[in-house]
Design goal:
With 346 residues, the protein is an alpha/beta fold. Helices cover 26% and strands 25% of the residues. The chain has 2 domains: 2-151 and 294-345, Quinone Oxidoreductase, Chain A, domain 1 (Alpha-Beta Complex); 154-290, Rossmann fold (3-Layer(aba) Sandwich). The protein contains 12 helices and 17 strands. The strands form 4 sheets. Strands 3, 4, 5, 8, 9, 16 and 17 form a 7-stranded mixed β-sheet that branches. Strands 12-11-10-13-14-15 form a 6-stranded parallel β-sheet, with helices on both faces. Strands 1-2 form a two-stranded antiparallel ribbon. The termini are close together. The structure holds zinc ion (ZN). Zinc ion (ZN) binds at residues 89-90, 92-93, 95-96, 104-106, 109.
Length: 346
């Protein structure tokens, strides 16, 4: 089968590999029907994910059809259409029981697929702990509609949940890329008083203005965001800030635009260490919450999609066959042709 593999830092390549087989009784084999490229894949390529193992198949965002299940898997069966979770978690340890599945203490727990074990930019994928890692797609929901449930949309949902958003809040989302938009969709469900989204890219800004006209969009290159947020909030700053962009300037912006005692949720995966200037911030009494996603709400998210409350299909701006994934990477990595997300069809 075709599989896109992390060869070495800076290099992915297509290989013909053997179809995966069940290893444990809790595994499932899924025939991938649609996968996607995530910015974390680009981080792997750049060597910014130290735990990524050379030689693994990339890809952690996918949907498919269950081909085979181990003897201990009861939640799904052969033929079921499923979303695959970015995270592998046992469902039994201290952290899993509390819903902190990102910190599952199992040796295979956490972000394993397409990082430490073979992932889904391939024709088939083995999913460990399939009971937790697979969620059935309702019949009325298409593969395209469900594609982001296990990763970017799970991230947006989780970020929104932990940000404790209330109706009187002014919420600022920094970053209007795929994760930023998924976060926006989930924040909108909370119906806060105002939503302000910061984005520097003109194409992304246009996309957000066109699809979500009720959102205030600001470009930090053109507008003093600190001043803008102060002017457009009730208590001298944002009540909730969700930092999804992941650069040093956006990290700084996140705590600067927050009002005292605000919740600042840091969703982004940074490529470098960030500075927290505590002397300057003293007295602001901020509450920081940091990534990554506890992806244990996928059934709830699928229900919201089924009820037509969340629609991420506009994010799929391009579709490529798996055999042409290199073209897709070039487009995604270099942000060509107004790309937001790419669907890869094996
Ligand atoms: Zn666990």
């Amino acid at each position: 089968m075709l599989a896109y593999v992390y060869e070495e830092q800076g290099k992915f390549c297509m290989e013909d590999r053997e179809k995966p087989r069940l290893i444990n009784a809790t595994d499932a084999i899924v025939r991938v029907t649609l996968s996607s490229i995530c910015s974390s894949d680009i981080h792997i390529k750049h060597g910014a994910v130290p735990r990524a193992v050379k030689g693994i198949t990339i890809g952690h965002e996918m949907v498919g059809v269950v081909e085979e299940v181990g003897s201990e898997v009861t939640k799904v069966k052969k033929g079921d259409r499923v979303t695959v979770n970015v995270e592998t978690f046992c469902g039994k340890c201290y952290f899993c029981e509390k819903g902190f599945v990102n910190n599952c203490t199992d040796e295979h727990g956490g972000w394993a697929l397409g990082c430490r074990i073979d992932g889904g930019q391939a024709e088939y994928v083995r999913v460990p702990f399939a009971e937790q890692g697979l969620n059935k797609i309702p019949d009325s929901v298409t593969d395209e509609e469900a594609l982001f449930v296990g990763d970017v949309l799970a991230t947006g949902y989780w970020a929104t949940r932990i940000s404790e958003i209330e109706e009187e809040d002014t919420v600022v989302i920094i970053g209007g890329g795929p994760t930023g938009i998924c976060t926006l969709l989930c924040v909108m469900l909370k119906q806060p008083k105002r939503i302000i989204l910061c984005e520097t890219d003109d194409e992304r800004t246009e996309f957000i203005k066109k699809h979500y006209p009720e959102v205030m969009v600001v470009n930090p290159k053109e507008v003093d965001v600190e001043e803008f947020v102060k002017r457009n909030s009730d208590h001298g700053g944002a009540d909730r800030v969700l930092e999804v962009a992941g650069s040093s300037s956006t990290f700084e912006l996140a705590w600067k635009i927050a009002r005292p005692n605000a919740v600042v949720t840091v969703v982004a995966l940074y490529e470098e260490t960030q500075k927290l200037p505590l002397p300057q911030m003293y007295g602001k009494n901020l509450i920081f919450k940091t990534g990554g996603v506890d992806g244990c709400d996928c059934d709830a998210i699928l229900k919201l999609i089924e009820e037509r409350k969340i629609d991420t299909t506009p994010l799929i701006t391009h579709t490529f066959p798996l055999s042409e994934i290199e073209k897709a990477y070039d487009l995604f990595e270099n942000r060509k042709d107004g790309v937001i997300k790419i669907a890869i069809r094996p």
